[in-house]
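The freezer alarm interrupted the setup, so I double-checked each line after restarting. Inputs confirmed:
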Amino acid sequence: GEDVEQSLFLSVREGDSSVINCTYTDSSSTYLYWYKQEPGAGLQLLTYIFSNMDMKQDQRLTVLLNKKDKHLSLRIADTQTGDSAIYFCAESSGGYNKLIFGAGTRLAVHP
Amino acid sequence: GAVVSQHPSRVICKSGTSVKIECRSLDFQATTMFWYRQFPKQSLMLMATSNEGSKATYEQGVEKDKFLINHASLTLSTLTVTSAHPEDSSFYICSARDSRDYEQYFGPGTRLTVT
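Predicted 3D structure, all chains:
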C-alpha cells in the first residue's frame, strides 16, 4: 500500500535554513503537501506541489520534488523560533483527495 | 480563507458513554469531509470519508458501529464515539474538502479523554 516516510526530528539554529525530507512509495501521486502542526492544534497547509513540477517557491519556503526517486523536501529559509512545530508530508492520488500522511518531523529551532 | 471548526475542542467522558464531535465548514460547502485520529507523537490516520447525503466509507480496521458518522448537510459532519473506552482517548481531527477547488482544510482538532 501507499507509504510516506519522514525523519522524526530536526534541530536548527535560528537564522539557518531547515531542510525536511520525505519519501513516498505511490508512483501515481498527483499532489504532494506540506502541513504544519503546532502543539494542540490542527493542521495548517503550508504549500503543495503538483507531481509534474520539480520546484515550487513561496516566500521562505522552497519545495523540491524528485519524482524519479519519489523524494520530496521542504526548505525553510531564515528559520525562526515561530517555525518550531511538527511538519507533515502527505500525498494524494486516490479519489476524494484521500491524503496519506508521514509520521511528521519535529522541528526545533534554538537561539 | 476557508475555515473549519470543531466542537468541542476538549471533552472528558466516562467509560461506556457516547460522545459527539461536530465538524463545520464555516464559509464554504463541503460535499466530502474526512475524519482522522492522531495518537501522541504520531501521524494522522484516516478513519473514514464522509459524503453528504450518503453513508461514510470507513478505512480498514475502523469499526463503523463504534464510530458513527453523519454528514447531514453541506457544512456539517458529526462523529459519534459510542460506548467509549479509555483506548478511544485520542486527538480527532476533521477536514473538509471545498466543493469549489477541492482543497482540503483542517479543523483544530478535538481532544477526547475517556476515564
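Quick read of the result. The first strand of chain B starts at residue 4 and ends at 7.
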